[in-house]
């Protein structure tokens, strides 16, 4: 029996009439009759006794009903699942991000995404980039955000926003005219907040300083960019950070200047190369990219 045969057969078994089955299935009575006749023709036997407009199942029909009941339930479950997926009701999007991006970019992006995906479940976690690669490869996350391209053969890195390395300092550190000019290693004065030795941006800053014969002294060293930003906001010193962290700093507490020479910093969307994104996940990635670009524009204003 075909799936359509089973569906009609079960409807008739439940309600006992052609007209009732037609109402249950939302199809015409002639359509129900035609499907039933085709099913009986294929089986080579009648399944029902016709008496005064009602259908009484034969013993063979009862046996067939018992065997096909689970299949019919599975069919209904598949249809409910398809309807739910279409309505985005059961989709789960699993996103992992480096801590800086989770705090600086994600909140506004999630707010915008939720307008169209109010019912979609979203699981958020913060990892470092090495942990992100493992999560994607093991199927524990659908998409990820990082300021680094891990250059891993199993990972696709898609740039979705780009800015430049930025120096942030407590308000009042520079004049208005100085804020319009880039600043290089020689301009780093006063209390400096450094990044951990294995941090990519920290390595870039130290290498640039050494290339110009500058030996910066970092008496405060932090593990994350958002801690550096918080210290600068509190007046504890100057730091060189990514543009997204700089743009998300509290207005009125922090001044910003581009690093010289300009050093591009990209925001990457990371996915496993064997796992295409769902509709909801791709929409979230688009919202994140748009939010990140808008954040950079506002920070430059």
From TrEMBL:
<comment type="similarity">
    <text>Belongs to the LysR transcriptional regulatory family.</text>
</comment>
<dbReference type="InterPro" id="IPR005119">
    <property type="entry name" value="LysR_subst-bd"/>
</dbReference>
<feature type="domain" description="HTH lysR-type">
    <location>
        <begin position="1"/>
        <end position="58"/>
    </location>
</feature>
<dbReference type="Pfam" id="PF03466">
    <property type="entry name" value="LysR_substrate"/>
</dbReference>
<dbReference type="InterPro" id="IPR036388">
    <property type="entry name" value="WH-like_DNA-bd_sf"/>
</dbReference>
<keyword id="KW-0805">Transcription regulation</keyword>
<dbReference type="InterPro" id="IPR036390">
    <property type="entry name" value="WH_DNA-bd_sf"/>
</dbReference>
<keyword id="KW-0804">Transcription</keyword>
<dbReference type="InterPro" id="IPR000847">
    <property type="entry name" value="LysR_HTH_N"/>
</dbReference>
<keyword id="KW-0238">DNA-binding</keyword>
<dbReference type="Pfam" id="PF00126">
    <property type="entry name" value="HTH_1"/>
</dbReference>
<protein>
    <submittedName>
        <fullName>LysR family transcriptional regulator</fullName>
    </submittedName>
</protein>
